[in-house]
Structures are given as C-alpha cells and as structure tokens.
Amino acid sequence: MFELSEEQNDFKASLRSFVDKEIVPVARQMEADGEYPGDIIDKLKEMGLFGLTIPEEYDGLDIDPISFGIVFEELARGWMGIAGVLGSHTMASKMITEHGTHEQKATYLAELARGERRTGLALTEPDAGTDLQGIKTTAKKVGDRYVINGAKMWITNARHADPLPVLVKTDSTTTPAHKGMSILLVEAGTPGFEVTKDIQKLGYKGPESCEIVFDHCEVGEKALLGGVEGRGMQQVLSALQWGRINIAGRSVGIAQRALEESVSYAQERESFGRPISEFQAIQLRVGRMATRVQAARQLMYWSAQTLLQGRADGETGMAKVFCSEVALESAIEAMSIHGGYGYSKEYEIERLYRDAPLMSIGEGTNDVLNTVIAKSIFAGRTKI
C-alpha cells in the first residue's frame, strides 16, 4: 500500500475539513439553482490552490503530483464541478511554467497563482475531440502578428480565462500534422475572440463549458508559447499527464462520496424491522465498492509517484481509465442501494450519477487511453 507522508496526510485532512464545511452543505442547492460558485472559488484563491502547479518564486505552491491528486479527490468528493474550475487552470498554468518564455512567466504566473487571473485550455473543436491533430483552427502569420480563425468547444473557464492558451495550426501543410501545431496565449477582450454560448450539460454543473469563436483574432508574436512554432502538441501532452491525475483524483472523490452516502443510508434505512446494512445483498455491494475505491486511490497515488520521476503517459493513463470506471460503477451501486431515493434530487446520489460518466470521457476517452497504455508498454516505458 502506498503511504502518504505526514505532510500529505495533514494536507488531505485540511482539505477534507474545508470541503465538509464550505462545499458539502451548499453544493446540491447551488447546482439546482444554477448558481455560479463564486464564493467558493474566492475561498480556493485564499487557500492558494490556484497556484498548485506554479513555482514558489511566482507565489505558487509547486505541489507534488500526489498532493495534486489529493486536491481533486477531496474537492470532487464535495462537488465535482468545483474541482473542474481548478482542473483546466492548473494544467494551463503547468504548461506556461514548463514551456513559457521568461516574459510570459513574469507576465502571467504570479497573478495566476493568486487567482487574480484564471486560465483554461482551448483544445477541443466541434469536429476534433480526442483527435487533436484534426483541429481546423489556424493562426496565419502576417508580419509580426498571428491572425486566428476557427472555433473551440467544451472549454472550461472560457468566460474567465485571461489568458486562454489556444491550440492552433501555424502550418497546415507539414506532415505529420502535430509538427505544425502551436499554442497561442489569447488575452480576454482581444478583438475577434468571442465566447458565443454556454453548453448545457447533464452533469458537471458549476463551471461553464463554452463554445468560442475566433474571427480574424489578432495576437502578437509574444503570445506564442515558448516563442517557437510547432511545439504545441508536445506542450499539450506534457500538461495532459497532470490532467489524467486530475481526472483520476476527481473519479476517486466521486466514488468515495458514493461509498460514504451508501454506508450512511444503509445504517439508517430500515426494512423488515432492521437496518438494511444487515442484509447480505447490501453487504456484498458495499464490500465490493469499498475494495474498488481503495484500489483506485492506490493506483492514482502510484501513477502520481511515477510522474515525479519523469514521463508517465502509460501509468497516468491506467489511473485515469480505472478510476473513472470505478466512479461510474460506484455511482450505479449507490443508486441500487438507495433504491428510489437515489433517483431523487433530495439525495446526493443522482448528482454523483450524472457527474460520473464525464470521467471516462474527459482528458481523452478511455478507449483511446487504453491504446496509449498499450503503446507505452510495447515501447518499454511502462513496466508490467
């Protein structure tokens, strides 16, 4: 079993206390009312959580991958949508930290760490989801400026991102396609950059998921992440390894909450004159759920530990795939244990049931990630 350090255990306990006090009591009603969680986000800023992946020299926490996963586990245990606000922000911040020019880091990182600025990742397009090399958004160099045209969708934090890293094709003729892809940092209010609508979703309520359009949107050369064209895909992939830890952590949080709610309900709910926790059918479900939740958590910690040592696309892919499957299975098991009450909006289970499926889709679908895992194994990067 992977053991957390004393510091990591204390960090986890402080997050659990915060979530139980500030998020759990209000999440269900805020989601039902369609209320944006601005007050909760302000508290995350006060805790310094917007600086998770930013170096201390820029007022960040520069947190290790294991503690990073813990943050998303604990936040998602309270409300998965809240975890989503930090997810895209921290990945984009990590990308700027690792690949940005000195000027880009000096301009953005400290304010991003303090939450004075927020950011996200504009990757997905209407006709290009998992297949990022199929994007159609272009950035044509005209003099010392780039002119961006295209559209992105499912962009978290789009209405608050400043800057928004956007994956574009700066060269549409090169082969393979990823060699002609770059990241441009587009600041809020730039002419030609418009958030056109918020996409209505089954779950993942709280943060906005938007469609955005670039219509002859002009940015200067200094907006090119790292200052060199053609490195966008590599820059994105390095951040997505952390993104998979983020999704694995969120999945464990959903599964943990489903388990907690099921245990509590089974001990309180009586049938045939005794608590249903005494029924073997319920015990079988709870035992199976608890075992898989713990296995998922350990896999998430292990993959995060591997990421500390360098490239871990296979290991983080394993964690994302397995943990997301456990999240969905746990939500379904919890629904069965609760019976009709699990279908009611008065209980937490129906929200967990709506949030869980996204975990198998976000940060690359599980089917695609299984191929990533296999390729890493065949290449000898992931040991079996």
Give a quick rundown of the structure.
By secondary structure, the chain is of the alpha+beta class. It has ten helices and eight strands.
Characteristics of this structure?
10 helices; alpha+beta; 384 residues; Butyryl-CoA Dehydrogenase, subunit A, domain 3; Butyryl-CoA Dehydrogenase, subunit A, domain 2; globular; two-stranded antiparallel sheet; Butyryl-Coa Dehydrogenase, subunit A, domain 1; 3 domains
Detailed description of the structure:
This protein is α+β, with helices and mostly antiparallel strands and 384 residues long. It has 3 domains: 6-113, Acyl-CoA dehydrogenase/oxidase, N-terminal domain (Butyryl-Coa Dehydrogenase, subunit A, domain 1), CATH 1.10.540.10; 132-231, Butyryl-CoA Dehydrogenase, subunit A, domain 2, CATH 2.40.110; 234-378, Butyryl-CoA Dehydrogenase, subunit A, domain 3. It is built from 10 helices and 8 strands. The chain has helices at 6-33, 38-46, 65-78, 80-99, 102-113, 232-268, 280-308, 313-338, 349-355, 366-378; strands spanning 138-142, 145-156, 164-169, 181-186, 193-198, 209-220, 270-271, 274-275. The strands form 3 sheets. Strands 1-2-6-5 form a 4-stranded antiparallel sheet, covered by helices on one side. A two-stranded antiparallel ribbon has the order 3-4. Strands 7-8 form a two-stranded antiparallel ribbon. Strand 1 and strand 2 form a beta hairpin. The chain starts with 5 loop residues before the first helix and ends in a 6-residue tail after the last helix. The mean pLDDT is 95.
